[in-house]
Amino acid sequence: MENKNSDFTNRIIGKDLIRYFILIYWALFWLLNIVDKVIGGAHFLFVGKDRFAQIERFFDSLGLGEPIIANIALVITAGLETFAFVFFAGALYHFAKKNLDATRSWFFIGIALTLITYTYFSVGDQVFGDHFELLEHGLFWFIGLLSWIIFIRVDKIQLFDNFSIGRKQFIVSSIVVLAITAVTTFSIFWHNHTSFVERTQAVSAEKIADNKYKIKFPFLAGSKAFENSIAKFKTDNPTEKITYIYTAPAQLRLGESDGLIIYIQTEKK
Amino acid sequence: MKEKKLIQYLILIHWTLFSATTVIDKIVPDVYPLWVGADFYTLFIKFFASLGLTDPIFATIALAGISFLEIVAFVCFAFSLFNLYKTKDKIAEQWFYRGIGFSILTFSLFSIGDQIFGDRFTLLEHTIFWIILVISWVIYKYNSLTDERVIKFSMSKDIKVGMLVGTLFTVITTVSLFSFSKETFANKTQPVQGEEVVEGVYKFDIPFLGDKITMENTLKDFENKHSDLKINYIYTGPDELNSKKKTHMLLYVFTEPK
């Protein structure tokens, strides 16, 4: 009985766990894609991606600016994604119930819908000329295909037959983990304590020539930091009028620590 | 139908459509109604010019050579798909192997070009497609070597529940998509309202659908509402200032009294 329990535990930790990971991943992946479409736009606790704006722009570039076209394309996508989610969720349910035959059938349909979805996206990417998205969707298509093979073939992969850790190694590894976690946590909290203010804090301008100033922003700086810096510049230089702002391009920011750099051109009021 | 066969169909349909659209992209080299595509001619001209080969004949010959390989790959995939449909599995596999071979050759040539032209990102892109092609062939051939499992899909109770839930979710998503599109479509042209963030400096959060027309209308609207102000300068907020990704673009307008 003890041996049977140990076998069962090892199987759950080993191959079944990999199958659970695959099923949970794809079910959550499509669920969140649906949530993104249902919510639409950026809200508190969910930013997501404005798919309507993206697809509308794509179709507009083809000369099909009417919103109904983008809506239809999105509804087809949503239908494929929803059914992919349903089939992955169903496969997860059947797997939890140890109904392996039904799990495979549901998972297979989920994978087939995933592959169809990404083929459909890839055709769109070629038509719209977006090769970065083509690469992204090609990769997801491939990951879907590979997930299927791993899911059905995981039994053929040689895994460890014993996942237990020796007492001594367990204690030493736990101490190492705790010590490194403590150091990392302290470092993260300390950085937050000293640097969070940079998100909005005004940065002083440095005069580099007559009527020319430079402002180097820290990485954390957002739009508020920019606005506060401009306000500070105006207060510090009441006789100067900003006539031009030049953003240093990435090619001029080769130092790894260079965040956003702007140059301000002024003239006397 | 067997699971193995459906996976083979899905692989073949993907690569046939992939190569077909690649070929169309070469036949339709510019932007036309219903087709935008990528401008490979300009890309090749620039790449060869960077090598000192400014005569367009080099770029044209290279593009024609690559297009030939892509056309051959497309024909192989299309023939493979046709033979699979006709249940001539062995012939389908042979055509698929040829298609994969020509595609791998194409991506290998692209990768050599990327190294010569120093384009590391495209090199990564082409290498990823190269490996996807190789593994697609392995999966096509060996995806179900030992078990010839037939797809079991009867309208059992759980399938009915699944279809119902799927339909319900699709309807909810459709309603939400149409409502969001109705609410936000006006953003495409509608002027954006500015906020005075510093004395004389106004910030505009241009929405995701915002285009050049939106900006033009925004400036017209701003000038109408602030007839006492003169626009000195317009500054586009760089991405570093827009890290929250909630807005498409930040625009700052610097003004002074007239």
Describe the protein in words.
Chain A has 269 residues and is α+β, with helices and mostly antiparallel strands. Chain A has helices at residues 2-39, 51-61, 67-96, 100-128, 131-153, 167-195, 223-236, and strands at 206-209, 212-216, 240-247, 261-268. Chain A has a four-stranded antiparallel beta sheet, with no helix packed on it. In chain A, strand 1 (206-209) and strand 2 (212-216) form a beta hairpin. Chain A is flat and about 80 Å long. The N and C termini of chain A lie far apart (90 Å). The relative contact order of chain A is 0.07. By secondary structure, chain B is an alpha+beta fold. In chain B, strands 1-2-4-3 form a four-stranded antiparallel beta sheet, covered by helices on one side. In chain B, strand 1 and strand 2 form a beta hairpin. In chain B, helix 3 (56-85) packs antiparallel against helix 4 (89-117). The longest helix of chain B is centred in the N-terminal third of the chain and has 30 residues, at 56-85.
Rounded to the nearest angstrom, the radius of gyration of chain B is 27 Å
* Number of distinct helices of chain A: 7
Count the beta strands of chain A.
Answer: 4
Query: What is the molecular shape of chain B?
Result: flat
Structural class of chain A: alpha+beta
Low-pLDDT runs of 5+ residues of chain B are none
| General shape of chain A | flat
Can you list the strand order of the major beta sheet of chain B?
A: 1-2-4-3
| SSE pattern of chain A | HHHHHHEEHEE
Query: How much beta of chain B, percentage-wise?
Result: 5-15%
Biggest beta-sheet profile of chain A: 4 strands, antiparallel
Which band does the percent of strand residues of chain A land in? 5-15%
Q: What's the average pLDDT of chain A?
A: 90
- Percent helix of chain A, as a range, is 55-70%
